[in-house]
Write a structure and sequence with these properties.
The structure is a single chain. The radius of gyration is 24 Å and the shape is globular. It is of the alpha/beta class. It has an eight-stranded mixed beta sheet with strand order 4-3-13-12-14-15-16-17, sandwiched between helices. Helix 10 packs across helix 11. Among the domains are: 8-29 and 49-233, Rossmann fold, CATH 3.40.50.980; 485-584, GMP Synthetase, Chain A, domain 3.
Length: 588
């Protein structure tokens, strides 16, 4: 008897997305939309495993991926570098073991691994089987893990035996119970978990090949269910398919300009937009050498740049600022191979972006993206002036303007006044960014979101407030998240704007601005500051710094809290709710 490639239950199951159209549980978008994107060339027919095979065929013996240099200290496993051929063999072994233990097309498998070759290969092994990966930052623990496993209906989890003193596989076994399978890379894999990383036998490989040859695969098939960062609420599941991930990846690659000779160092967890779209997928599109890093450890990070002659990487704005201003640290690091650095997630100080370009000869790209499909890219070809590039992003679709990213001509963008619902057309006006196009997801995972993410015209409501700027409104300037705007006596204050201005204030190493209740004005501004070593920061210092930049008086912080560190989620986004909770006494 020949085994059916797709279990009958998977064929019949459907999952209502938050759009009006119901789509198959294995897919992400309505079929008419898929046909339109393919016909217009906005999506390509290639799947992620097919692109991997192209890379293997093109340069089988070239280095493909390298583990973090400190992997042994993290997991007990020795770091290694694999060629594309060796990576393919490793993926085949993993997929054979997963198949032998029941993983099939349409299954959702939770993934809890640090950046590594193991994580890279795990994704491809699942995708070869037609399974869906639901990845999580390795720092997640039992509370987050159990919620995501339940919401995604995960049938198994793939993790490591240990990580930085934690027994990850044991934690996973307690969450998964007896009804779900736990796979783990060694060392430290406990009894009851299935060991990964060993060669598969010939029979297992043949069974795998027979199964895969019978699969029917579409570029609309789900490949991941990622999760919102949870900065303001419980995480929401974001299903994505081959087509929309690769549309976003090409949009980023148009700014990165990776080649098969590029060496890309990835410091962000490869679990969502930051890791996938800024590193993993552009690497898959073009080839080259992907060097993994996790968690952010500055000496290790700088050492990897020098050792592997890294040409491209990503850094949060705070690290860009610190490296530029710390000449002794920079002198100890060899950054001479770097050509381009992507940054985002917080306002970029213009003077820092100029310093990296003029003093170090390294171009900083301004990224703004979201898991749901926002992908705006400030590339040097579009913004030759680094200070302009730091402050603004392209307004895709601006009349008469050509942008470097191919997403620009394929994405419809508008700003909508959140109070009136009117489209913002005047330069200087602000509104919520809304967009539609081939990189936008199809809707949240059923049961994880309480609100519709699209407006009546089918545009994604991003929740991000931008200002229309520049000649003929060709630029967008990020103002803040709609939920984070502070309203003081009827006047709106954007925390991100004030944070950007305070980033280079005397003695400030890191800063966050949040609102706190006021019985008269409704809200006031509080600045949370991490002082630089041996520095003293006062409220007067901050307000004078802002006044010197002629900032409106109602925007000045009226309270200062000195802290050792700021709370951030695993991908570096600020957790403002935790800061607000310290001011109000509420539980975050």
């Amino acid at each position: 008897m020949v085994e059916s490639p797709i279990p009958a239950a998977d064929v019949a199951a459907t999952d209502s997305t938050t759009t009006a159209t119901r789509v198959n549980v294995r897919t992400c978008h309505p079929e008419d939309r898929v046909r339109e994107y393919l016909d217009r060339g906005w999506w390509q027919p290639d799947t992620l495993p097919e692109l991997l095979q192209c890379r293997i065929d093109a340069a089988p013996d070239a280095p493909a991926a390298t583990d973090p240099a400190n992997l042994a200290a993290l997991t007990g496993a020795e770091p290694r570098t694999l060629s594309w051929r060796e990576l393919d063999e490793h993926i085949l072994d993993l997929a054979a073991v997963l198949y032998r233990n029941g993983i099939r097309q349409g299954d959702t498998v939770a993934v809890l691994l640090p950046n590594s070759i193991a994580l890279t290969a795990t994704y491809f092994a699942l995708w070869r089987l037609g399974a869906v990966a639901t990845p999580m930052p390795a720092s997640y623990r039992r509370h987050e893990l159990s919620g995501i496993v339940s919401a995604a209906h995960a049938t198994a989890i793939i993790t490591a035996g240990q990580l930085s003193g934690r027994e990850l596989a044991c934690e996973a076994m307690e969450v998964m119970g007896d009804e779900r399978t736990v796979f783990a890379f060694g060392p430290g894999v406990p009894d009851g978990a299935i060991l990964l990383g060993e060669p598969a036998d010939t029979a297992d490989r043949e069974r795998l090949r027979f199964y895969v040859s019978g699969l029917t695969v579409s570029v609309n098939d789900r490949v991941t269910i990622c999760w919102t960062s949870g900065t303001e609420a419980a995480p929401k599941g974001i299903p994505r398919c081959h087509g929309d991930w690769l549309a976003m990846a090409w949009g980023v690659q148009d700014g990165l300009h990776l080649t098969p000779e590029s060496v890309l160092l990835n410091p962000f967890p490869m679990v969502n937009m930051a890791g996938f779209a800024a590193s993993f997928l552009p690497w898959l599109l073009t080839g080259g050498h992907l060097v993994q890093h996790h968690p952010l450890d500055l000496p290790v990070f700088l050492g990897q740049i020098a050792r592997h002659r890294v040409t491209h990487t990503s850094m949060p704005p705070a690290l860009l600022t610190m490296l530029l201003h710390n000449e002794s640290l920079r002198a100890s690091a060899d950054l001479s191979s770097l050509r381009r650095v992507g940054s985002g997630g917080a306002p970029l100080p213009p003077i820092v972006v100029r310093g990296w370009q003029d003093e170090l000869g390294i171009e900083v790209l301004n990224f703004f993206g979201s898991n749901e499909g926002v992908c705006l890219l400030g590339a040097p070809v579009d913004f030759p002036d680094p200070e302009i590039r730091a402050q603004y992003l392209p307004r895709y679709g601006a009349p008469g303007v050509h942008w470097a990213s191919r997403l620009a001509d394929r994405t419809a963008v508008k700003l909508v006044d959140v109070s009136t619902g009117a489209t913002v057309t005047e330069v200087g006006g602000t509104g919520e960014l809304r967009l539609a196009g081939p990189a936008v997801f199809g809707g949240y995972l059923a049961g994880t979101a309480s609100a519709e993410p699209f407006d009546d015209d089918g545009f994604l409501c991003s929740g991000d407030v931008f200002e229309l700027c520049g000649e003929d409104g060709r630029y967008l300037r990020f103002v803040d998240r709609t939920k984070e705007i502070i309203i003081r006596g009827g006047m709106n204050i954007a925390p991100a704007e004030i944070e950007g201005l305070l980033a280079d204030a005397p003695g400030v190493a890191d800063v966050a601005v949040v609102g706190y209740p006021d019985p008269v004005l409704g809200e006031k501004c509080c600045a949370f500051v991490v002082p630089a070593p041996d520095a003293t920061v006062t409220l007067d210092v901050l307000t004078e710094h802002l006044r010197a930049r002629e900032v409106a008086s109602f925007k000045l912080p009226e309270r200062l809290e000195i802290v050792v560190t700021l709370p951030r989620n695993p991908v570096g986004k600020l957790l403002r709710r935790e800061l607000r909770a310290t001011l109000t006494g509420d539980q975050p």
